[in-house]
Amino acid sequence: MCPKMQVLLLVVGLIMLLGVFAETDSSEITEETRNYCVAKRCRPGGRQCCSGKPCACVGKVCKCPRDNS
Question: What are the boundaries of the signal sequence (predicted)?
Fold first, then answer.
């Protein structure tokens, strides 16, 4: 096999591998979005989010479990 063909196959393989990793990352984001609702401007001990339920502040972002009932 000529060197140009080897390089082409290597590049195609790397692109496919990156595509698999990209799909994995997006599914993790979807899972997190499904389990938590997010509201901005959260302050510890201050405003509550997610229909008035207590929240955890991650930086200035408020996260709490969704009500699945």
Answer: 1-22
What is the domain partition of the chain in residue ranges?
A: 1-33, 35-68
Q: Which residues contact 62 (CB under 8 A, 6 or more apart)?
A: 38, 39, 40, 41, 42, 47, 48, 49, 50, 55, 56
Summarize pLDDT for 5-61 with one digit per residue, the tens. Answer: 999 999 998 888 777 665 544 444 444 444 455 555 555 555 556 666 666 776 666
45: Cα within 13 Å, side-chain hemisphere: 0
Answer left, alpha or beta for residue 41, where phi above 0 means left and psi between -120 and 50 means alpha: left
pTM, to two decimals: 0.33
